[in-house]
UniProtKB/TrEMBL annotation:
Pathway terms, separated by semicolons: Carbohydrate degradation; glycolysis; D-glyceraldehyde 3-phosphate and glycerone phosphate from D-glucose: step 1/4; Carbohydrate metabolism; hexose metabolism
Family per similarity comment: Belongs to the hexokinase family.
Superkingdom as given in the UniProt entry: Eukaryota
Stored Gene3D superfamilies: 1.10.287.1250, 3.30.420.40, 3.40.367.20
Keyword Phosphoprotein: no
InterPro entries xrefs: ATPase_NBD (IPR043129), Hexokinase (IPR001312), Hexokinase_C (IPR022673), Hexokinase_N (IPR022672)
Catalytically driven reaction(s): D-fructose + ATP = D-fructose 6-phosphate + ADP + H(+); a D-hexose + ATP = a D-hexose 6-phosphate + ADP + H(+); D-glucose + ATP = D-glucose 6-phosphate + ADP + H(+)
Protein name in UniProt: hexokinase
UniProt key word Nucleotide-binding: yes
Length: 693
């Protein structure tokens, strides 16, 4: 066709006629998932789960399998039911030893089987008074159309006489009845064998779907099935007998398989067009290396702005000094109170630190924060916190004890010094990211960076004092709480933000703020996915174009669903169940697309986090004038901990963008509360050293 320059044809589909039959019937009946041809030849196809097809990569969705069942028995499996007539027919065929099942059932061979049986009976003197004609000796003289005519209900006997006379024979009425009986036996066996093979396919479909009863339709075509008067009825009856747990409808293909070929082409064309539209959306989330390098460079620039006195007020990355000037060195000891304030819970801890052995024992109690206090004033919140502390000290039998206290919380806070907030023995007020770094720093002295990738996203690191213009003094280091969630609030990453990011931002409590966090943190990823799903549904690419009320509900698609859907162990059936919980009636194809959307959104989030982190580690390497830097990052947060791929993608991105930095990632097992106690212990140690000096 390519050689014909005057033809402009795009060949989209090349299909077997059985597949064409199934597709023709599936257009009229969506339950049709099997195609059978019983004509000159015989074959079947059916929809198989991809996870069972080893020959094709991928395990999502289903694919039509062309069984080519005509060759069943070529390995000898049918040896016990093949007759001498089957063997004789096979030896005289064009392909001896091949297509043995087809030779027992299809239209090309039934007439020949009848001829061989009649010839033997005539030779034995059981028919035609022992007389034989040359036509009866000639291969192919009895055709399947003759067999069908002889089996007709009323005119069958008359047809039989006419056909036998045409073969040069002089049959009696008894001969005609016997010949008709031979035809019935041969065609009945064919229908029985077809039914048995079809029953095997239907049983497999039912088991694949894990259902008690299967409702399905079989698309049928082929001259034998169409013209033989008794064949369809016999086939249907035996199938229903063999698979009583299947409700089977048999649908005759009126237009043959050519309409099916057109249907396959139409489906292929639609799928191809839809795939292009879906890929266009997913491509928005696929960041190139150049884009990631650009994000890294811009993050680096914002870090520098935040450290400078002149540009600090304009920087989107706040770079807040924490007044944490040292990491644990193992000499810390004593009892400390730690307070850990999150979004919905408040935790009070008693932390016992023993020096030398790096031993920490913790006792804690979790207090819920009532909604009215969560939404109330700061004074009400802190009154509640003080009451919780009093309850905890009472619970631990420590009422009236004077204990150093550390306070860590998940919110931005500009600090003037480490211990100015409370009139207590010694207090450390720290961000949870700093607490995470200190927790891991106690185990690994090389840990100088803290990262939280959870509901929110933030990062802190140990910066040289000489670079922090906001704080006096040029000696030593101080931990900087970057508050990097605001990166991009000045529009510097608008080139990689999508329409979906804009929709999520505009619908948030703080439009225009924390743009980087809204692209990377657990609080927003599910909402980005929801916006994409709504758009794809509007385009008719998902859920049959029907947007459910649940899908319209903000916050319904939680980030935990991303982790579940993207799990490698999760089959599509389980993905569909998750979507059903959300009120989304999805097909297998829908489930595949939803999984891809979740993957694209979380992949971008991990890469963006990695690019930001790469900016920090490269800055530390250059600041120290090192050719190669070894550093540990303490990590916490549900997204990093629970998502099946987030941590790996983040680590790979850092490795690619900062190749001269050997970065170890250490998971914080005890959260940031332990870190608050350690900061308090370090502050106390440093204060003691100051007094002694």
């Amino acid at each position: 066709m390519r050689r014909h320059k005057d033809m402009d044809v795009d060949i989209l589909a090349l299909v077997n006629d059985t597949v064409g039959t199934m597709m023709t019937c599936a257009y009229d009946d969506p339950y049709c998932e099997v195609g059978v041809i019983i004509g000159t030849g015989s074959n079947a196809c059916y929809m198989e789960d991809m996870s069972n097809i080893d020959l094709v990569e991928g395990d999502e969705g289903r694919m039509c399998i062309n069984t080519e069942w005509g060759a069943f028995g070529d390995d000898g499996a049918l040896g016990d039911i093949r007759t001498e007539f089957d063997r004789e027919l096979d030896l005289g065929s064009l392909n001896p030893g091949k297509q043995l099942f087809e030779k027992m059932i299809s239209g090309l061979y039934l007439g020949e089987l009848v001829r061989l049986i009649l010839l033997k009976m005539a030779k034995a003197g059981l028919l035609f008074g022992g007389e034989k004609s040359s036509a009866l000796h000639t291969k192919g003289k009895i055709e399947t159309r003759h067999v069908a005519a002889m089996e007709k209900y009323k005119e069958g006997l008359a047809n039989t006489r006419e056909i036998l006379v045409d073969l040069g024979l002089e049959p009696s009425e008894a001969d005609c009845i016997a010949v008709q009986h031979v035809c019935t036996i041969v065609s009945f066996r064919s229908a029985n064998l077809c039914a048995a093979a079809l029953a095997a396919i239907l049983t497999r479909l039912r088991e694949n779907k894990k259902v008690e009863r299967l409702r399905t339709t079989v698309g049928m075509d082929g001259t034998l099935y169409k013209i033989h008067p008794q064949y369809p009825k016999r086939l249907h009856k035996v199938v229903r007998k063999l698979v009583p747990s299947c409700d089977v409808r048999f649908l005759l293909s009126e237009s043959g398989s050519t309409k099916g070929a057109a249907m396959v082409t139409a489906v292929a064309s639609r799928v191809q067009a839809q795939r292009k539209q879906i890929d266009r959306v997913l491509a928005l989330f696929q960041l190139t290396r150049e884009q990631l390098v650009d994000v890294q460079a811009k993050m680096r620039a914002e870090l520098e702005y935040g450290l400078k006195k002149k540009s600090h007020g304009l920087a989107t990355v706040r770079m807040l000094p924490t007044y944490v000037c040292g990491l644990p060195d193992g000499t810390e000891k004593g009892k400390f109170l730690a307070l850990d304030l999150g979004g919905t819970n408040f935790r009070v801890l008693l932390v016992k630190i023993r020096s030398g052995r790096r031993s920490v024992r913790m006792y804690n109690k979790i207090f819920a924060i009532p909604l009215e206090i969560m939404q109330g004033t700061g004074e009400e919140l802190f009154d509640h916190i003080v009451q919780c502390i009093a309850d905890f000290l009472d619970y631990m039998g420590l009422k009236g004890a004077s204990l150093p206290l550390g306070f860590t919380f998940s919110f931005p806070c500009r600090q003037m010094s480490i211990d100015k907030e409370f009139d207590l023995d010694i207090v450390a007020v720290v961000n949870d990211t700093v607490g995470t770094m200190m927790t891991c720093g106690y185990e690994d002295p090389n840990c100088e960076i803290g990262l939280i990738a959870g509901t929110g996203s933030n990062m802190c690191y140990m910066e040289d004092m000489r670079n922090i213009e906001m704080v006096e003094g040029g000696e030593g280091k101080m931990c900087i709480n970057t508050e990097w969630g605001g990166f991009g609030d000045n529009g510097c990453i608008d080139d990689i933000r999508t329409q979906y990011d804009t929709e999520v931002d505009e619908g948030s409590l703080n439009p225009g703020k924390q743009r980087y966090e809204k692209m990377t943190s657990g609080m927003y990823l599910g909402e980005i996915v929801r916006q994409i799903l709504i758009d794809l549904t509007k385009q008719g690419l998902l859920f049959r174009g029907q947007i459910s009320e649940r899908l319209r509900t903000r916050g319904i698609f939680e980030t935990k669903f991303l982790s579940q859907i993207e799990s490698d162990r999760l089959a599509l059936l389980q993905v569909r169940r998750i979507l059903q919980q959300l009120g989304l009636d999805s097909t297998c194809e829908d489930s595949i697309v939803v999984k891809e959307v979740c993957g694209a959104v979380s992949w971008r989030a991990a890469q963006l986090c990695g690019a930001g982190l790469a900016a920090i580690v490269e800055k530390r390497r250059e600041d120290q004038g090192l050719e190669h830097l070894r550093i540990t990052v303490g990590v916490d947060g549900t997204l990093y901990k629970l998502h099946p791929h987030f941590s790996r993608i983040l680590q790979e991105t850092v490795k690619k963008l900062a190749p001269r930095c050997d970065v170890t990632f250490m998971l914080s097992e005890d959260g940031s509360g332990k870190g608050a106690a350690l900061i308090t212990a370090v502050a106390k140690r440093l204060q003691q050293a100051q007094k002694e000096n």
